[in-house]
Amino acid sequence: MSAKLAINKEVFIPHDEKMLAAVQVKRRTKKKIPFLATGGQGDYMTFICLSGNSILHSAADSVTSAVQKASQALNERGERLGRAEEKTADMMNSAEQFAVTAHKLAMKHKC
User: Fold this and answer.
1) CA-based Rg of the chain, rounded to a whole angstrom?
2) Which of 30, 64, 55 is nearest to 44 (CA)?
3) CB burial readout 76-86, b (16+ within 10 A) else e
4) How would you class 44 by CB atoms within 10 Å of its CB: exposed for 0-12, middle for 13-18, buried for 19 or more?
5) In 3-state terms, the chain is what percent helix, strand and coil (to 5)?
6) DSSP conformational letter for 70
7) Does pTM top 0.85 for this prediction?
8) How far is CA 38 from the centre of its chain?
9) What is the C-alpha separation between 85 and 93, in angstroms, rounded?
10) Nearest to 48 by CA among 4, 2, 1, 14
11) Which stretch of DSSP H or E encloses residue 19?
């Protein structure tokens, strides 16, 4: 089994992730790393791996969150517009009532 397949099986699959890319790189260190069989100081090989799941989940979560926030803002704006429309209709009715009353009063005192 190749190292890439082993990494995918041991690291990514248990977390329901998929390894999208793996690149073997040569790393150089000035210190001796006791758990690596490099023979002391110097170069050793390692892998850099990319998992799309974590990136995709984060992107999906942020898009979902943005859509939910936009939807909530639109609903709230619709409610405010509805209340404004009701108040406008009430004010229009009040203005008409006032005009009728003012006209009656003017006609009464016109003599």
Assistant:
1) 36
2) 30
3) eeeeeeeeeee
4) middle
5) 65, 20, 20
6) H
7) no
8) 44
9) 12
10) 4
11) strand 19-29
